[in-house]
């Protein structure tokens, strides 16, 4: 068990480190999303045969960044109203959309559930279906995704991922049985970071539930994380000793401790105080700047697994309250 190594909770609650926000941050994301909007979203929801009795499953896809089709599962409760609220879920690092029966929780609570593949991921543990159209020359990177294209914000991997996340919200809204006014974004770890990006960049998000989010306060993560993807960044910086300033200049466009201030939907965060992958101070850096009304559930004795099913119960209760008119 990892020992408590980050700041005490009393300091975390007030933790607002200085962050390097680019002067052209809003213009950067406006241009990225406008570029994507030139392409037809073209959402597809093809019936997918399963033996599942309580849900209907659709093999979904939509046009993401660069015109590439992004895969998803849409899981609908068989007993549902004419228009259902929808939980759009983004996935953890290296995980893909897997199989529909891996994702039955939110439909059991009565929600439509769109499970969004992360481009290029899913080669480990849970398989994915979406490739990544990488730029022709993304530059040297450490195996993994955190440093892919790190020397150029226009080529950086998470530019494509965040655009996909915004497009996923639009795809959910386009389904005739989904209530476009009740779209919820959620995910854990990498999915939690993508959740914050979607809440900041996608119009009309009704609620956000980032769980032990990654991709927040990159420098702090690189400085103190003892496990997980932030170590990829440390490895890259150790090899490219004289290019650290360039790398962090790119990462500041994707830092959800910065982007979270642009979100306005109600949010329920979670954090684990013994998390060696997404240290609590990185989570609080985003939570304390969050632009909408926010709550946070603190799991004092847990590592990166966080609250797991206990957190899901917290989310379900909070979401029922939040989406009630």
How would you describe this structure in keywords?
single chain, 325 residues, alpha/beta, Rossmann fold, nine-stranded mixed sheet, globular, cephalosporin-C deacetylase activity, hydrolase
Structure summarized in a few sentences:
The chain has 325 residues and is an alpha/beta fold.
Question: Can you give a write-up of this model?
Answer:
The chain is α/β, with parallel strands linked by helices and about 325 residues long. It has a single domain (about 10-45, about 80-90, about 130-320), classed as 3-Layer(aba) Sandwich (Rossmann fold), CATH 3.40.50. Helix content is about 30%, strand content about 20%. It contains eleven helices and nine strands. The chain has a nine-stranded mixed beta sheet with strand order 1-2-3-5-4-6-7-8-9, sandwiched between helices. The longest helix is centred in the middle third of the chain and has 18 residues, at about 155-175. The relative contact order is 0.15. The model has no long low-confidence stretch (mean pLDDT about 95). This is Cephalosporin-C deacetylase. Keywords: Hydrolase. It comes from Amycolatopsis endophytica.
What does the main sheet amount to?
9 strands, mixed
Q: Averaged pLDDT, please?
A: 96
How are the strands of the largest sheet arranged? 1-2-3-5-4-6-7-8-9
Strand content: 15-25%
Give the total of beta strands.
9
CATH topology: Rossmann fold
Number of domains: 1
Helix-strand pattern:
HHEEEEHEHEHEHHHHEHEH
Shape: globular
Q: Return the structural class.
A: alpha/beta
What oligomeric state is this?
A: single chain
- CATH superfamily membership, which one? Alpha/Beta hydrolase fold, catalytic domain
Low-pLDDT runs: none
Q: Helical proportion?
A: 25-40%
InterPro entries: AB_hydrolase_fold (IPR029058), AXE1_dom (IPR008391), CE7 (IPR039069)
Protein name: Cephalosporin-C deacetylase
GO biological process, one term: polysaccharide metabolic process
Domain Acetyl xylan esterase: 4-321
């Amino acid at each position: 068990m990892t020992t408590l190594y980050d700041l005490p909770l009393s300091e975390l609650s007030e933790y607002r480190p200085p962050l390097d926000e680019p002067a052209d941050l809003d213009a950067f994301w406006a241009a990225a999303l406008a570029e994507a909007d030139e392409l037809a979203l073209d959402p597809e929801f093809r019936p997918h045969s399963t033996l599942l009795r309580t849900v209907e499953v659709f093999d979904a896809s939509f046009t993401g960044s660069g015109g590439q089709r992004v895969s998803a599962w849409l899981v609908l409760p068989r007993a549902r109203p004419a228009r259902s609220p929808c939980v759009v879920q983004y996935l953890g690092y290296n995980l893909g959309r897997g199989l529909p029966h891996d994702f039955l929780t939110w439909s059991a609570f009565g929600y439509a559930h769109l499970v969004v593949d992360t481009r290029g991921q899913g080669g480990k543990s849970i398989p994915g279906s979406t490739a990544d159209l990488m730029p022709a020359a993304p530059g040297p990177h450490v195996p993994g995704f955190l440093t892919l294209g790190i020397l150029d914000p226009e080529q950086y991997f998470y530019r494509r991922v965040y655009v996909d996340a915004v497009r996923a919200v639009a795809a959910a809204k386009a389904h005739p049985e989904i209530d476009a006014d009740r779209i919820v974004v959620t995910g854990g770890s990498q999915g939690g970071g993508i959740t914050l990006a979607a809440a900041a960049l996608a119009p009309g998000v009704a609620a956000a539930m980032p769980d032990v989010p990654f991709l927040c306060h990159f420098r702090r993560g690189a400085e103190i994380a003892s496990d997980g993807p932030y170590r990829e960044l440390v490895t890259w910086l150790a090899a490219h000793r004289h290019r650290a300033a360039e790398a962090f200049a790119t990462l500041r466009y994707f830092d959800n401790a910065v982007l979270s201030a642009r979100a306005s939907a109600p949010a329920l965060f979670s954090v684990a105080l013994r998390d060696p992958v997404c240290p609590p101070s990185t989570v609080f850096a985003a939570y304390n700047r969050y632009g909408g009304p926010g709550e946070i559930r603190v799991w004092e004795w847990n590592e990166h697994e966080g609250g797991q099913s206990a957190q899901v119960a917290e989310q379900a209760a909070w979401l029922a309250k939040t989406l009630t008119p």
